Amino acid sequence: MGAVRADDTEVAIVGAGPAGLVLSHLLAARGIDCVVLEQRSREYVEGRVRAGVLEHPTVELLRNLGVAERLDREGLAHRGIQLAVDGVRHHIDFVELTGHSITVYGQREVVRDLIAARLTAGGEIVFEAADVMPAAIETNRPVVRFRCGDEARAVRCRIVAGCDGSHGQCAGLVEPRTVAEHAYPFAWLGVLAEAAPTQDELIYAFHERGFALYSMRSASITRLYLQVAPDEQLGAWPDDRIWNELATRLPTGDGFTLNTGPIIDRGITAMHSSVTSPMRHGNLLLAGDAAHIVPATGAKGMNLAIADVSVMADVIEQALRHGRTERLGEYSPTCLPRVWRTQQFSHRMTTMLHRFGDDPFQRELQRAELARITSSVAAATDLAEHYVGLPFARLPEVVHQ
Ligand code: FAD
Ligand code: DHB
Known about the structure:
The protein is of the alpha/beta class. It has eleven helices and 21 strands. The longest helix is centred in the C-terminal third of the chain and has 23 residues, at 331-353. The N and C termini lie far apart (56 Å).
């Protein structure tokens, strides 16, 4: 291996998921230089099937960044969702309750749009960066070392943004840290099918056999999920079993029809919650799944990642453009209250809709909560406000003396 090639930038961003990529655009809009370091290939990052629902503050932010042209053309605006309780559907109308809708647009489409726009604008994203490791984060000259093939490289910077997801390295550099965690006794089997959706709203189904979710990606692609055992193996779920189980749990006796078709992607996702605090150590700031994981019910993971970096970009601007480095200390306390509100919402959606066991007392409590939401405008509005997206947190205003 030859000499280390060192580059300078203002912000080194670790990870090209929604958090890292949106941050790169927010910084560019503020005239702040950055480099994104991603361990995977561009094809891999653009191919991952993950979340699919955008909150309205997320859509607004993407529009403000000028990266929502395809989203506005191809995204599906949904005015609400349906809750199916033991086979009977109930409509929750977000537009009526909050004035806002949600947009169904796959995470991988968001990621593709962000990468294309960044590269077109001359931004730097290093794909297939191996052994990425930040150092000297307690100094004002951090460095991120990594390898590109056989070449050892290093990026010197002022700030490191840890946007490297739930399996990344950055969270481990926050010392001391507290990690609050919760595991759920089930997982989700998710499939993507070449089958036209039969309606333009998602269905969250509470059923004796367990939870099911009906979602979509486009006019020809359906996205479906089933609650399964936490240690479930994909091999135990041939296509016929998946479709039969979906037909049983979704409200097909209530006038809803389920189109079937070839399954083009499938995976099992664990369900757990965690929050790392603080979300900062020295000149390292964490965002998205690197700092917290929410259970998938309610589709908050990607939206929360983007909410974090909207605050992070302001803090970095304060530190690097206005010399207010002490304001880095405001990042974690500004983000964490919204993180916990979102965590609480995702936990509540998860505990309300899944089957936890055979306890009839617990099942009836779940039915009572669903009855409250489907019969009370106050309760439905509370769900709707959280689902469409709480306003992004903002740094406190500085009062000039
Ligand atoms: P990520 O999208 O995970 O991005 C982190 C990036 O960092 C990745 O590209 C990764 O390759 C890179 N990276 C990791 N380690 C390193 C390293 N050492 N060096 C350099 N780069 C590194 N949410 C929902 O709302 N609904 C869903 O249905 C849903 N399904 C999901 C399925 C799966 C399998 C997973 C893992 C997540 C799912 N989520 C879902 C959650 C949602 O996708 C995440 O919350 C969202 O991706 C968070 O964005 P992020 O940018 O913080 O992290
Ligand atoms: C999707 C995922 C979710 O977790 C959710 O609550 C709603 C929709 C989706 O992938 O479409």
